[in-house]
Every structure is written in C-alpha cells, then in structure tokens.
Amino acid sequence: MFTNIQNRVHTARHLLFKWRQTPTNFTPLRGALKSMTPVLSQLQKSFYVFIFNLPEPLPALFVDLGVHWFLRVVHRIALSPATAKDVHVLASHAAASLGPGSEAAISRTSDGMRYPPSVTRRAVHGAMPESIRIYSEGLAMNPWEPSTSLQSALRNLDSVAGGIAKKDPPQSSDSAQINTTAALSACHSPVSVVWGAADPALDSRIMLDGMKEHLVAPRSHVIMLPNVGHWVPTDPRGGRAVAEVLTWALEGEKDDVTQRVQAAVVGAYVTVET
After folding, report:
1. Which of 29, 8, 48 is nearest to 205 (CA)?
2. Residues 97, 156 within the same domain
3. Predicted TM-score of the model (pTM)
C-alpha cells in the first residue's frame, strides 16, 4: 500500500514539475491528477481512521454516539449494497464489534462454560475501545517485522505442501523502488488473496497494484469477487469463495482453485496468477 502511494505521489510531483516548466501544456497536469486520484480516493475512504486516532476519549464517544450511530454507518458502508439491507447481517456485525454485554458476559452455557474475566471487564464499555487500539497504537500502519521463527515456518511450508520450487522475484518494468521493495517483501509461500471488488474502505489500485511482484511462489492468486464488500468472509458470496479456497488448500491444492471459486461465485475473476 505505502509503496503504491509513494510512487504515485512521486509521479505526480514529477509531472507537476514538468507542467510548471510549460504551463500551456496541460498534459502533465492531467497526468498528475490521474496519478493522485487513487490516493485521494483512499484518503476519503479512510475517514474512520482519522476518527479512531483522535485523543481519548473522543473515539469511544463517536462509537457510542446516538446508540452506536457511527458504528452502524461504518458497517453499512463496509458491506456491499445488497448485504447492507439485511438487518440480521448488520446485527451480527454490530455484535462482533461491540462484544457481549454485561449480562451475557457472566452467563454460562449448559455445560458450565463462560467468558474469561478479560471479556467480563471489557463488557462494561464494549469491545470497541480495544479494537480502536489497532489504529491508535499503530498496529495497522506501522512497519511490521516478522520474527525469525515465523520466517522459518513460512519458508518450510513447501515441505508440507509437497515441495514448491522457489523462484527469484521477477524483474519488473516499473521503477527500481518497486522492484527493490517487492524483493524485500516477497512471499515465498503460495498465497491466495480473495478481494471484494466492491470494497468501499480500501481502493484496490492502492492495495493491489504491483501485487504480482510480491507473490513469487507458484500457485498464488488474487481473486476478485464482484459486488462483495469489505468483510469478504461474512458476505454470503465471499464466504463461499473463502470456503472453496480453504477446501482446495486442505485437499492438497490439486485442481484449479480459480475454477472452483468461479463455480461458487458468479462473475469471480483472477487478476494475478503465478
């Protein structure tokens, strides 16, 4: 994401510099605006991140405002238009965001099981303050360095999957910066990305452009699902697609996963395949 943003900003600055040299030629200006359009689109889509980064207790107040009005708006935006009309789906997402209430937190099942004390403590204010910390403490945006043990486990996945031949990151016609970043962050194990093409929270041009540079292992895919929103697994069509991908992986990745997903979700298409 950040590499795409940086490259688009760099391109726009270069084109604006050219336009300043020849102000009567508007082609560079149009090119700069075109380059920045996805960046501006993502800024607009990420309005909730700004709210979650406000000083405490403002984020929590926004969430509680008007019987969780802000939370309900965010849920409706993140869902696909068809799914957002389903009251049961909206209620399910609200419950997942807020967590159990005080009464539910101390309840027990028929066999005596109950929520742990940590959930009981959070039930007073709901689970949202903890969720907001993902944004306020930088987990979603700050650089992430995988541990040595995780890197080792990822590189050993090929022995479990039957031996996947590694290949060097492909050479790109894009800038050296993209190629270098891709080489450093390349995933050497198969990855299947299932993306909702109607995601209103993340611009696919910012999130997915150049993805092929990072998916260097064979049998990696980026599968797009039309009319599916931000929460792919909880969308009925997205859930079917995810289930097909997981089943394909558990069965040994023997057949074509794209055909399986396309059979389950009408209109699904592949943008990256290695």
Report:
1. 8
2. no
3. 0.74
Q: Is the dihedral of CA 266, 267, 271, 274 positive or negative?
A: positive
From 87, 110, 144, the end of a domain falls on 144
Round to whole Å and give the CA distance between 160 and 219: 15
- Point out which residues pair with 273 in neighbouring strands: 221
Most confident range (mean pLDDT) of 14-28, 130-144, 162-176, 222-236 is: 14-28
pLDDT tens profile 163-207: 444 444 444 444 444 444 555 567 777 889 999 999 988 999 999
Using alpha carbons, list the distances in angstroms from residue 30 to 5, 16, 25, 40, 123. Answer: 18, 9, 10, 15, 52
**Residues 218 and 50 sit within 8 Å (Cβ to Cβ):** no
Domain end point (choices 144, 163, 178)? 144
Do 197 and 238 sit in the same domain of this protein? yes
**Mean pLDDT of the 25-54 span:** 90
Distant-in-sequence, close-in-space partners of 177: CB < 8 Å, separation ≥ 6: 3, 6, 7
248 shares a domain with 156: yes
pLDDT in tens, 99-128: 887 788 888 888 989 888 888 877 776 677
Q: What angle do CA 201, 207, 208 make, to 5 degrees?
A: 130
Residue 225, domain extent: 148-273
Are 68 and 167 in the same domain? no
Q: What angle do CA 46, 47, 50 make, to 5 degrees?
A: 100
